[in-house]
Design goal:
- This protein is an alpha/beta fold.
- The protein has a seven-stranded mixed sheet with strand order 2-8-7-6-5-3-4, sandwiched between helices. Strands 9-10-13-12 form a four-stranded antiparallel sheet. Strands 1-11 form a two-stranded parallel ribbon.
- Helix 5 runs parallel beside helix 6 and helix 12 packs parallel to helix 14.
Length: 377
């Protein structure tokens, strides 16, 4: 099977450990185990319970306790509608393996996480791209979606909140997309790994799995919950789909680690505390970023409504990779080039780190922009 190199992941592998100010980070600042245990309210009891866990495979599809607490994030899902995977990336890959065959049509928005168009292409599907445009606030155009539907459309892939733009589809727009999918008889896969990060309210947007009988929601502990080290994600959807996915899952997953399962459960049983911390950080940092953009004539953006990232448009005559490597080499600040996301002319910034890192990093970016402007005159 041939597949395109994963642009964002290759960039991260190359540079993430060689920067001073990581403004490419997409996970809300990671929790330590000490912080997580403190949030549980009873560190001693949690550690005692952990020390008595046998290091077996554990529950193959995820423990009942974990699947039940995950299901509480949804309006219409039970533990039986949840299947545990190795991150949202693992959940998405399994869904494509289970549903997509050569000759199928898969429609994916762009920009989005690359696996949503590269994996189905590698499986022999015809992938049609639904572009997200600045003039629409990086939201899907439903009429344009209808125009690319054909009689072989098997799956529509969306991302809400969107990575990298931070655009947020409200429930009304999601229902319009559901109507298109339903008419086509297509599955609707919504990557909701940033769900819980909305800039207003409780942070949660409507979930595709709750809106459509063929809707699938995927998510993980990495972004919203600051626990990427657990490598644990899930999918929510109809039981018939989960059974189909399990056939493929048996070949490459078996189970997630029992400690990953256990600590994800502890975290989600205390998610109100994690969300309070993380939403405050994201909302404060976005204000900081918004103020910075307003004072930078070479930068503009569509202000994110959710998520942990923004897509910055820069007005300079050089490629995004060149822009980002120069920034790294001169000032130690890391962005992600738009080239890695098939969005040349932009860079992605993460505003999920602590505020001091952002302030210092953005100050260096300002210096870099002034230098480039002088050099490229």
């Amino acid at each position: 099977m041939k597949i395109r190199p994963f642009g964002v992941e290759q960039w991260m592998n190359e540079w993430e450990n060689h920067c001073e100010y990581n403004l490419a980070e997409t996970c809300v600042e990671s929790l330590t185990m000490k912080q997580l245990l403190a949030m549980s309210g009873d560190t001693a009891a949690v550690l005692d319970e952990m020390l008595n866990i046998k290091m077996t495979y554990g529950a193959i599809t995820g423990s009942e306790r974990l699947r039940r607490v995950i299901s509480m994030q949804y309006r219409a899902q039970s533990a039986d509608n949840i299947l545990i995977a190795h991150g949202a990336i693992g959940a998405n890959a399994l869904i494509y393996q289970a549903l997509v065959e050569p000759g199928d049509t898969v429609i994916s928005v762009l920009p989005t996480y690359q696996q949503h168009y590269s994996i189905p292409a590698s499986l022999g599907a015809e992938v049609k791209i639904l572009p997200l445009r600045e003039e629409n606030g990086f939201l899907p155009d439903v009429a344009e979606l209808k125009s690319v539907i054909d009689d072989k459309t098997r799956l529509i892939a969306i991302n809400n909140p969107n990575n990298p733009t931070g655009a947020l589809m409200d429930e009304a727009l999601l229902k319009d997309i559901v109507a298109v999918a339903r008419e086509a008889g297509a599955w609707l896969l919504c990557d909701e790994v940033y769900r819980g990060t909305n800039q207003v309210g409780d942070g949660y947007s409507a979930a595709a799995a709750d809106l459509y009988e063929k809707g699938i929601s995927t998510a993980s502990m990495s972004k919203t919950y600051s626990l990427a080290g657990l490598r644990l994600g899930w999918m929510a959807g109809p039981e018939s789909l989960l059974k189909a996915v399990e056939i493929h899952r048996d070949y490459n997953t078996v189970s997630v680690g029992v400690l990953d399962d256990y600590f994800a459960t502890i975290a989600l049983e205390n998610r109100d505390k994690i969300l309070s911390r993380n939403q405050t950080m994201l909302r404060d940092n976005l204000q900081l970023l918004d103020e910075w953009v307003s004072h930078e004539p070479l930068i503009d953006y569509i202000k994110p409504q959710a998520g942990t990232t923004a897509l910055l448009k820069y007005h300079l005559p050089l490629g995004s990779r060149q822009f980002c490597i120069g920034l790294l080499e001169r000032y130690g600040v890391m962005f992600t080039p738009g080239e890695a996301m098939d969005m040349e002319g932009y860079v992605r910034i993460g505003f999920a780190n602590n505020g001091e890192v952002m302030k210092k990093g953005l100050a260096r970016v300002s210096q870099y922009l002034r230098e480039l402007q002088d050099e490229l005159k």
